[in-house]
Amino acid sequence: MTLVMAVLVGFVLVPGAFLVFGLMQTSGESRERKRITRLCEYGVEVQARLISLVPFGTRGYASATYEFDTPHGTVRHNKGASRGPAHVVGHTYPMVYDPDNPKSVHLGDMTAAHKERRRREGYVRDARRMVLLSLAAATLATVGLIVSPS
Known about the structure:
five-stranded antiparallel sheet, elongated, 2 helices, 31% strand, 150 residues, alpha+beta
């Protein structure tokens, strides 16, 4: 196998891996973008109280449990968090939740939810761009393998 053939085969395999990764990232980020978009459109901002902060592991992480009131009753939400002065048991923190699905929440106010939505839209756009570029690179390398003399 000549060096040209080895480079072309590499340019088929590497973009194939990027293509698979890009497709996985596109589906996951699209799902998150839809969730955060729904929160931005229909979400209600509430003040959630941090009721417990239970450490786990040895790297400074903890399981935080927030509690907030909805028209249907009190809801608890568990979230992983880092231990530190930013999280104090008993303090209230802004939270946006979906009235139709109280388990779908975003920690932060509506401004933070809108910023997160813009960030997710950028992730989806970049993932689609990566898929298209890897597809183009793999196509060009495949054409090069077909056209090149053996």
